[in-house]
Amino acid sequence: MWGIIATWRMAVEGITEADKMLKNGADSGDAIEVAIKEVENFPYYKSVGYGGLPNEEMEVELDAAYMDGDTLDIGAVAAIKDYANPISIARRLSHEKVNCMLVGEGAEKFAHKEGFERKNMLTDRAKIHYKNRVKEVQQQEIKPYSGHDTVGMVCLDTHGKMTAATSTSGLFMKKKGRVGDSPISGSGFYVDSKIGGASATGLGEDLMKGCISYEIVRLMKEGKHPQEACEIAVNNLDEELKARRGKAGDLSLIAMNNKGEWGVATNIEGFSFAVATENEEPIVYLTKNVNGKCIHEVASQEWLDNYMKTRTAPLEEK
Ligand code: ASP
């Protein structure tokens, strides 16, 4: 059995590449890295890698993580600037015994010494998004932090090895130095090849309050199907946050166990995700939470066409 599952429609090209590799017996570390890089490299996905949305100071600061479910090795970078593929740097760091999570300048120094590709990650399009948002926020039409999506993936290869990985530009207009859940073990991702893995997208500050990726893996360890594990974890955290704090941020989770069974849960409308397994060609689903149960529907061609059209539409300064 092999399989890969990922947050958001933007992951489907990446998981299609990974699927081809997994079919041919590739290592899940190699497959997940290729899949995430595909998303990082596509300039029109504005919340991951090249073209990612900038922070308050118009700088693109990226977070990424990689975990090996066999060895439990973890590598992560946070608030790294001007490197093309944060995921590859995170994976390289996962081979270190210590110093395996680096932030800012330290992460950039490491990447430079290791010969990773430097790149100005701020595109003209992202600058326009930034300038427009500054105006919108001034006019108080919109919350400064809305408009963010992390790519998070869990992968199983034919040898039974599982990996998890994330990559993101984090919250749009975040403070310089702000780090969300994505590079944080147990919150943005977790994987154990003996059980399965999970990964998150949404409001990092709230996802971290439930260590939600670890919680899903823990529930799967108790014997829960990934779908049930995701629903329990998302619904519980959503309820706790609302009860204690009056509201809950966006929480969307994907998971896969070591049999290639998968699950997804969300507390928002219209969460999309992509999945491919030995039994399922790469496909995009949309999911919604109806009274605690998440119902997945295959995305229509119209939805998919519209998605690409809006992502790549010409953008003008307001
Ligand atoms: N979880 C990410 C963060 O808080 C953002 C997202 O997934 O939308 O940085």
Describe what this molecule looks like in 3D:
There is one protein chain. The N and C termini lie far apart (50 Å). The longest helix has 20 residues, at 226-245. The chain is an alpha+beta fold and 318 residues long. The protein is globular and about 50 Å long. The chain is built from 9 helices and 13 strands. Helix 2 runs antiparallel to helix 3 (86-93) and helix 7 packs across helix 8. Strand 12 and strand 13 (293-298) form a beta hairpin. Aspartic acid binds next to strand 8 and helix 6.
Which helices and strands occur, and which strands form pairs?
Elements: E1 3-7, H1 12-23, H2 28-41, E2 62-68, E3 74-80, H3 86-93, E4 101-103, H4 104-113, H5 124-138, E5 151-156, E6 162-168, E7 189-192, E8 196-202, H6 204-207, H7 212-221, H8 226-245, E9 251-257, E10 262-266, E11 271-277, E12 280-290, E13 293-298, H9 301-312
Parallel strand pairs: 3-4
Antiparallel strand pairs: 1-5, 1-11, 2-3, 2-6, 5-6, 7-8, 8-9, 9-10, 11-12, 12-13
Helix pairs in contact: 1-2, 2-3, 7-8
Bound molecules: aspartic acid.
Residues 148-150, 168, 170-171, 180-182, 201-204, 207 line the site of aspartic acid (ASP).
